[in-house]
Amino acid sequence: MSKVEEKAATLVLHLLGHQEKKLRASALEEKLRGLEAEETAAILNFICNQAKGKDLAYLKAYNALLELLRSCTFNRKKISQLRAVARQKDYSEVLQMLLDLPPQKIPHSNSEGPEDPFLKDLTPGHRKSLAKTQKMTILRRLLKDQDPMVIRSLLLNPRLTESEVLKIASLRPTSSRVLEEVFQNTRWVSRYRVKKALVCNPYCPPSIAVHLLKFLLLSDLQEIAQLENLHLAVKEVAHQLLRERKE
Predict the structure, then answer these.
(1) CA–CA separation, 106 vs 202, rounded Å?
(2) Nearest 10 degrees: CA dihedral of 194, 196, 198, 200?
(3) What are the tens digits of pLDDT across the range 184-241?
(4) What is the torsional sign of CA 40, 41, 46, 52?
(5) CA distance linking residue 216 with residue 220, whole number of Å
(6) How many other CB atoms are found less than 10 A from the CB of residue 116?
(7) Predicted local distance difference test score (pLDDT) of residue 242
(8) pLDDT of residue 55
(9) What is the pLDDT of residue 155?
(10) Given CA atoms 83, 182, 184, 59 in this order, what sign does their dihedral have?
(11) How many whole angstroms separate alpha carbon 201 and alpha carbon 231?
(12) Which of 237, 238, 208 is nearest to 223 (CA)?
């Protein structure tokens, strides 16, 4: 076992002691903080490759890394350094994870208020409170809300079903921040159809779509690789995964 593999294994074992995703991300940041960019990139590359093989422990570390990269706490300068090393060393998995690209499409309107006349005059706080109701008629009216905090509360409502979540994940146009809330919700992002809906939505951040691609079936990857309205980076990764699986 090489030094990189040994350090990666030790790191993954340490992360397994933390049950919550955000705690794993914080623990990961702490362990990576003192390492040079080249060593960090090599460790991350090994974790990515192991996660691709569906190793559960490494998959959790991979998810913790994505959570860390999407937070505001990780050193932005170090991310730039990691990108440079990943390009130089041809760590394609690491480079994909470090994507910092806007979605293929962005809503024209800057307004986050709902179009529904019933909800239009309500404050975000009031709508957030309504998201906790047991009345499905109201919950369904909130599915198009563009305030991420309202959607976060809505996704936690036990009355919500996969059918409603798919409507949120498939909505177009929509805010990338709303789709991020779906992605951050462990309960719903674990559903296969929700993963696919996020990937196929051109308003989804490429970093999220690329992360979810590796969980999709071959037939769905073939479909996604041909979609015209998706980000080029997402389609390129879909083509790459298709080549790897066929080999």
Answers:
(1) 8
(2) -150
(3) 898 999 999 999 999 999 999 988 898 899 899 999 999 999 998 998 888 888 988 8
(4) positive
(5) 6
(6) 14
(7) 92
(8) 79
(9) 97
(10) negative
(11) 10
(12) 238
Distances (CA, A) of 27 to 19, 48, 94: 11, 17, 19
Closest to 204 in 3D by CA, of 223, 226, 229: 229
3-state secondary structure the chain: CCHHHHHHHHHHHHHCCCCCHHHHHHHHHHHHCCCCHHHHHHHHHHHHHHHHCCCHHHHHHHHHHHHHHHCCCCCHHHHHHHHHHHHHHCCHHHHHHCCCCCCCCCCCCCCCCCCCHHHHCCCHHHHHHHCCCCCHHHHHHCCCCCCHHHHHHHHCCCCCCHHHHHHHHHCCCCCHHHHHHHHHCHHHHCCHHHHHHHHHCCCCCHHHHHHHHCCCCHHHHHHHHHCCCCCHHHHHHHHHHHHHHHC
- Give the other-Cβ count within 10 Å of 25's Cβ: 23
Q: Hey, what long-range contacts does 28-33 have (CB within 8 A, 24 or more apart)? A: 28/61, 28/64, 28/65, 28/68, 29/68, 29/73, 29/74
- Two tokens, residue 220: 């769905």
Mean pLDDT by 10 residues, the chain (247 residues): 89 85 83 88 90 81 78 72 87 78 71 70 92 94 95 97 98 94 93 97 91 92 93 86 85
* φ and ψ at residue 201, rounded to 5 degrees: -85, 115
Q: Rounded distance, CA 145 to CA 140, Å?
A: 10
Count Cβ atoms below 10 Å from residue 77 Cβ, excluding itself.
9
Supply the pLDDT for residue 191.
96
